[in-house]
Design a protein that fits this description.
This protein has ten helices and ten strands. By secondary structure, the protein is an alpha/beta fold. It has a domain of 159 residues: Amidase signature (AS) enzymes (Alpha-Beta Complex), CATH 3.90.1300.10. A five-stranded mixed beta sheet has the order 2-1-5-7-6, with helices on both faces. It has a three-stranded parallel beta sheet with strand order 9-8-10. Strand 3 and strand 4 form a beta hairpin. The longest helix is centred in the C-terminal third of the chain and has 27 residues. It is globular, with a radius of gyration of 20 Å.
């Protein structure tokens, strides 16, 4: 972050430390930010919470996902803000301030990869890494008007990155330009060896039906241009998908972060505190039932997709307004 003006509170204000990158490579000349869940040698890993920040100290190594970018010639610019322990979708950290949406300063950035989205949208970096468990790349990318890519779960290493719900946690990429996103994705994923079957793109009509009328009116010309047909993706009511995910995520967060919360009793912002209290009430029996339903839904959805490309909304409306009096 050396010499960088950050009007969006996108970056954590850590002292600069030397991070060496290759002098040449497919990403040479590009600068990138890293969500403050990944370890970067010489920097702390705060995870959006001051107690985590103090306990974690300075990282002795660099996460493989970050190292791959450095080896490809990209220059590290700094650690970007995250919602507290990456468990919110608003981008308003109660301890380190609320990131500002460069595309719409009166509205939220979305989260939890808020800083990465803001840094890219504001032109502070060419691309950035985030994580996506339940939309934490897709939502802020949509709200800030940049490209956001959440690849298939497990496609990019999550080693040396704070776990939230490991069965869903994924490393994702933000960029202002599609060509830059493609360059970064090829470095991290390799050339595409599994091309999409068939031709054309189908619009997920049942998902678009949930989009607010004004937003849908704005999207319709693009949908008509890009898609050549329709498909329904809800093999069961959308609420069933949501309830299963919420149950499974809750149990996994209690497993990954619960021991730290229970042992150290760290201060938690009101949003995360409420979510954790609710998650503790989810039973093992509920988890087993949700997992059985989830497996059935995933199999049915995979059969319906058959490798097709599908156009679907990331969010159902424009970003909400920032709360009155919200810092900065």
């Amino acid at each position: 972050m050396s010499g960088m003006r950050d009007p969006y509170l996108a970056f954590m204000p850590y002292p600069d430390a030397p991070v060496v990158h290759a002098p040449n490579g497919p990403l040479a000349g590009l600068r990138f930010g890293v969500k403050d869940l990944f370890d970067v040698e010489g920097y702390p890993t705060g995870c959006g919470n001051p107690v985590k920040l103090a306990q974690n100290g300075i990282a002795a190594g660099t996460a493989p996902a970050v190292a791959a970018l450095l080896d490809a010639g990209a220059a590290f610019a700094g650690k970007t803000q995250t919602d507290e322990i990456a468990w919110a979708m608003v981008g308003l950290n109660p301890y380190f301030g609320g990131t500002v949406n460069p595309a719409a300063p009166d509205r939220i950035t979305g989260g939890s990869s808020c800083g990465s989205a803001a840094a890219v949208a504001g032109g502070l970096v060419d691309f950035a890494l985030g994580t996506d468990t339940g939309g934490s790349v897709r939502a802020p990318a949509a709200f800030c008007g940049v490209w956001g890519f959440r690849p298939t779960w497990g496609a990019i290493s999550m080693e040396s990155c704070m776990p939230l719900a490991p069965s869903f946690d994924s490393c994702g990429i933000f960029a202002r330009e599609g060509a830059v996103l493609a360059r970064v994705a090829e470095v991290m994923l390799g050339p595409d060896v599994s091309p999409i079957a068939g031709s054309g793109v189908k619009a997920a009509t049942d998902m678009f039906a949930r989009v607010e009328a004004g937003a849908m009116e704005a999207l319709q010309p693009s949908i008509s241009t890009v898609s050549d047909g329709e498909i329904g993706l809800y093999v069961q009511d959308a609420e069933v998908f949501h309830d299963c995910f919420d149950t499974l995520q809750s149990r996994e967060v209690v497993a990954t972060q619960g021991p730290w919360i229970e042992a150290d009793r760290p201060p938690l912002g009101p949003m995360v505190a409420a979510r954790y209290a609710a998650a503790r009430k989810v039973s093992a029996e509920a988890e087993r039932a949700a997992l059985a339903t989830w497996d059935r839904l995933v199999a049915a959805l995979a059969a319906r997709l058959e490798g097709r490309a599908v156009l679907a909304p990331a969010m159902q409306d424009v970003p909400p307004l920032r709360p009155a009096g919200c810092s900065p």
